[in-house]
Amino acid sequence: MPRTAPLIALALGATLLAGCGSAVTPNASPDTAQAVTITNCDRQISVPSTPAAAVGLSPSQTELLLRLGLADKLVGQAQTDTAPLPADVAAQAAAVPVLSESGPPSREQLLNVKPDFVFSPTMYEFTAEQGFAGLDQLAQAGVTAYIATGGCAQRRMTGTVEDIFTDLDNLGRIFAVPDRAGTLIAQSRASLSEVDAAIAGRAKPTVAQVYLEGTTVTAIGAGIEYDIIRRAGGNNVFSPQDPRFAKFFAAQITPEALAAADPQAIVFAVNSPEHEQATRDYLTRTFPNVTAVREGRLIAIDAADTYPGTLGNVSVVREIAQQLHPGAFAS
């Protein structure tokens, strides 16, 4: 997946084919684990013992494993060019083999490092037709495959920010680190509660969330991204009730459709400073009379913070809320 087409392209492929600033937990030997059985994407997963050789199939998943203190168990990381690891954990992954840079690793690349656990943001990374290791192939090799809850095909339209808590709870059980997982959950819930308290009773500005590639505008109307805006105190102008988003969380729209919605704020996902500047330039040039542009409410967020299975889903809520509701948060 090229850096210029992150989550939207990945999610489209997955559907068609199938840090919140928390402290990093120091590495330590986890508690002794017994066999664990969980439900993931409507599949029963049985893990006979604590995994010892894990692979994060995207930076978001690698980051979460690092924040759980599992650096010594990582034998591979993938899609490293799609998003940088946060600075506070990047050094821990410096010696972890890179299996792929711009897309998922091939079946051979993944199995060559002999993993016993792989953690993916979506089902797409397990598409055998694309040359990736399929779920059945991984099972035959004795590898447990776990998909971020918000990235499950059946969850993509209704995913929420709090899906990350399901992942943390499951990973805490699988790797026998429930206390570490519990700490991250508690910190994240506290962050969301602070936002709730800060924006309580405030009027909700209308918000359009978009992603631009050149002059192609894709709008978000459902899923985790939709819930992020809701949690940040925004009123989405696009929603699942809109026919364009009744079956899929994202849809290409015309410039006229965005102008007609006239949002008070526009949130747009970017994957580089150059992409941010290009998007700002396009929005400013194309929509000078839209309220969001006229009032200077163009809010850039890191595309990686919208990926399923990342603590960025929590931190970006506060980031957006602070710009939608200036003055609501103590300095």
TrEMBL record:
Residues 53-328 form the Fe/B12 periplasmic-binding domain. Pfam families: Peripla_BP_2. Residues 1-23 form the signal peptide. InterPro entries: ABC_Transporter_SBP, ABC_transptr_periplasmic_BD. Keywords: Signal. It comes from the Bacteria. Belongs to the bacterial solute-binding protein 8 family. This is ABC transporter substrate-binding protein.
